[in-house]
Amino acid sequence: MTDIHTLHILNKTPEHPRSKACRDALQPGDALLLIESAVLALAAQSASESDVPVYALASDIVARGLGQCAREASLIDFPAMVDLTTRAQNVISW
Amino acid sequence: MAANPIHSYTLVITGAPYSTQAPQTALSFARAAIAAGHTVDRVFLYGDGVHLASSLCTPPSDETHWPTEWSIFLTNNGIPGVACIASALRRGLVNESERKRYELSASNLLEPFIIAGLGEWVEGNTTSSRTLYFHAGG
Amino acid sequence: MKNPVMPARNNEGFLENANDWTPDVATLIASDDRIELDEKHWEIIEFLRLFYKEHEMSPPSNRLFVKSVKEALGDERGNSIYLMQLFPGTPAKTACRIAGLPRPTNCL
Amino acid sequence: MGTLMVIDQPPYGTWAGREALDMAFSLAAFDQPVSMLFTGAGVNWLRTYQDTREIKQKSVEKNLSAAPIFGVEAMYACARACTQYGLGPENMVDGVVLAENSSELIRQHSHTAFAG
């Protein structure tokens, strides 16, 4: 079952130009997965601007001391990340 | 209809160990994919990612040795690890036959990695059901 | 007829210095492969040298070599059988060697 | 519907764009449909009159001009980035299609990839 059109996997900080390009590319039916430095977006003061489901790798969040501020994303582990890639028709690694 | 269809993955790593998190994230992903019953068709190292296949990486003993971790994982699961030849030669990663061809002083390709062309990536792109990239962050 | 001196070449017969190339040198390199250059060969050699000048690269694989020849000179010449007959072995490699272009990286 | 190789990094200062170009060429070599999208600082690949002799690198302008010969189907440039970097018809290489909406373009391709 592919219930996600495109899974966007982002590993760049919010300042990185590709982060903006990724956000701009989000469309209804897509999902966003934050990994590595991209989880820092959850610490930045920003309204949750996207209408798509946002996931974030828990290990990257915990490593960066962000356990408390990750309310805007569903925290997942690697098995769940694998699962997300199987549910998506396309995957883009930004 | 199976609730959880089996997928095949080509994983492309373009970030180098010890300068990016890419090889680590990719390894955790690959382990989870195998554990879930999926297959990893091949791991393709491109750009700075080829440094993962160097037999000369020597991190301090209390840090994870990512080339070794990857080497063991690939060997245990029979997954081909391919370093792009153009990326590899530019960055000083060579196997024995390239060493001879270019008359170099040493070879340094870690087993079971092999050196091959981008055709391996093209094949993965067309035959695997998913191709995932692990780039440098920043 | 003068007898050209073979310039320095690497272990696969490619010129060490691209500026050493002359048509006479090409004839000499070709004779190593037991190829006697005729106008069909020269057409491809000239095409390759022009391609290199325009794009600052040789076609990076044999397939792209065939494609480029096809694009420039048509189907009759741009097919691997024709090029294989002219430049035995791996045509792109053999032709680049004779045309005085760098050794391809074997990228594909 | 083919692969979209994206170049979003500037030429010369970083190698990633060249590696993306090699990927596009190799897809073309195996007759896989591929197009390229230049966006962000990557649109600077498309400027005419690049003279790289002094920095001793190959000209990406010349390298890129082989793309149609090898069978790269289309070259798109993000219109917004072109405006930002002062690129217009007078100083841009031929054969580039301006894309007003990159996300639509991404949507139209089955794979979108960066080289690094």
Automatic annotation (TrEMBL), chain A:
<dbReference type="Pfam" id="PF04077">
    <property type="entry name" value="DsrH"/>
</dbReference>
<protein>
    <submittedName>
        <fullName>Sulfurtransferase complex subunit TusB</fullName>
    </submittedName>
</protein>
<dbReference type="InterPro" id="IPR007215">
    <property type="entry name" value="Sulphur_relay_TusB/DsrH"/>
</dbReference>
TrEMBL record, chain B:
<dbReference type="InterPro" id="IPR017463">
    <property type="entry name" value="Sulphur_relay_TusD/DsrE"/>
</dbReference>
<dbReference type="Pfam" id="PF02635">
    <property type="entry name" value="DsrE"/>
</dbReference>
<protein>
    <submittedName>
        <fullName>Sulfurtransferase complex subunit TusD</fullName>
    </submittedName>
</protein>
<dbReference type="InterPro" id="IPR003787">
    <property type="entry name" value="Sulphur_relay_DsrE/F-like"/>
</dbReference>
TrEMBL record, chain C:
<comment type="similarity">
    <text>Belongs to the dsrC/tusE family.</text>
</comment>
<comment type="function">
    <text>Part of a sulfur-relay system.</text>
</comment>
<dbReference type="Pfam" id="PF04358">
    <property type="entry name" value="DsrC"/>
</dbReference>
<keyword id="KW-0808">Transferase</keyword>
<protein>
    <recommendedName>
        <fullName>Sulfurtransferase</fullName>
        <ecNumber>2.8.1.-</ecNumber>
    </recommendedName>
</protein>
<dbReference type="InterPro" id="IPR007453">
    <property type="entry name" value="DsrC/TusE"/>
</dbReference>
UniProtKB/TrEMBL annotation, chain D:
<dbReference type="InterPro" id="IPR017462">
    <property type="entry name" value="Sulphur_relay_TusC/DsrF"/>
</dbReference>
<protein>
    <submittedName>
        <fullName>DsrE family protein</fullName>
    </submittedName>
</protein>
<dbReference type="Pfam" id="PF02635">
    <property type="entry name" value="DsrE"/>
</dbReference>
<dbReference type="InterPro" id="IPR003787">
    <property type="entry name" value="Sulphur_relay_DsrE/F-like"/>
</dbReference>
